[in-house]
Write a structure and sequence with these properties.
Blueprint: H1 2-10, E1 17-18, E2 24-25, E3 35-36, E4 42-45, E5 48-53, E6 63-67, E7 75-84, E8 89-97, E9 106-113, E10 123-126, E11 130-133, E12 137-141, E13 147-152, E14 164-171, E15 174-179, E16 182-189, E17 200-205, E18 211-222, E19 241-242
Parallel strand pairs: 12-16
Antiparallel strand pairs: 1-2, 2-18, 3-6, 4-5, 5-18, 6-17, 7-14, 7-18, 8-9, 8-17, 9-10, 10-11, 12-13, 13-19, 14-15, 15-16
Length: about 260
């Protein structure tokens, strides 16, 4: 009974099915039961979830398809996604709604799905602290919110217009993003005042340049609650160094931002 009780304590499953590998499918393949988003933007077609932004003037804000099955704490999420059009998407987790801004607006951690290689798979916080670790960079936020680079590796190069598998593993304050089995970025968040240990799952549809995000697989496995990684300055790698938070000159895609028609 213990695994079952652990599952129930983490979230309530709605409109989902179990598989033998311990993962739960979050889509039923037929409709958006268990999900909540702008019906003008989201649909299911041939077993694929599709979000469409038809024009720059169609959306005032980034809009999200929110999973209403509960909240997530420690978990592994696997999603097969592609983005058509010169724009980006993302997988939100441990997030919360900003109803005061607009319906279906979210703030929180995101695994970015972006045509610019440095951004895809990066660790990021939507409507929050911004970019943490670019693709190929492992980072840490200390208790004061100062960003440190603690590791570096070759960025994972993919074409986001093709189907790729994105994986998020969140355990305590350690967050890891992977694309097609390769680590893109890791974040250890020691900023107790601003970090989140629980929240919503959602899928981003980005405003601006016309684009379409498609998801044909989204599965979740709840993990046992992990202890928080303590901040121990003496154990910070000797090669670690403080960095400025990365900025971007490509907020949507790799080309110019299409102007809004007036």
């Amino acid at each position: 009974m213990r695994p079952f009780l652990l599952l129930l304590s983490s979230f309530t499953l709605l409109h989902s099915s179990f598989s033998q590998d311990g993962f739960t499918s979050l889509f039923n393949g037929k409709d958006l039961a268990g999900w909540d988003g702008d019906p003008a933007l989201w649909k299911v077609e041939d077993g694929v979830v599709i979000g469409t932004n038809p024009a720059p003037e169609a959306m005032a804000n980034n809009s999200f398809l929110i999973w209403r099955g509960g909240t997530v704490k420690d978990f592994e999420l696997r999603a097969t996604v592609r983005v058509i059009g010169d724009n980006n998407s993302g997988l939100q987790y441990r997030s919360r709604e900003l109803k005061e801004v607009a319906p279906w607006v979210i703030t929180g951690y995101q695994c970015d799905i972006h045509p610019a290689i440095e951004h895809t798979g990066m660790t990021y916080e939507e409507r929050g602290r911004g970019i943490f670790g670019l693709n190929g960079r492992d980072v840490m936020l200390d208790p004061e919110g100062v960003l440190w680079q603690i590791g570096e590796h070759a960025p994972v190069k993919v074409d986001v217009s093709q189907w790729n598998e994105y994986v998020i593993i969140a355990q305590g304050n350690r967050l890891r993003h992977f694309i097609n089995g390769q680590l893109t970025s890791e974040l250890v968040d020691h900023d107790e005042k601003k970090r989140s240990l629980e929240g919503l799952l959602a899928i981003q549809l980005h405003k601006g340049n016309p684009n379409r995000v498609e998801i044909k697989d989204l599965r979740l496995q709840v993990l046992p609650q992990a202890p928080l990684v303590p901040f121990e300055p003496a154990k910070v790698p000797a090669t670690a160094h403080k960095i400025e938070k990365p900025r971007t000159s490509r907020p949507q895609g790799t080309g110019p931002v299409v102007p809004v028609k007036k």
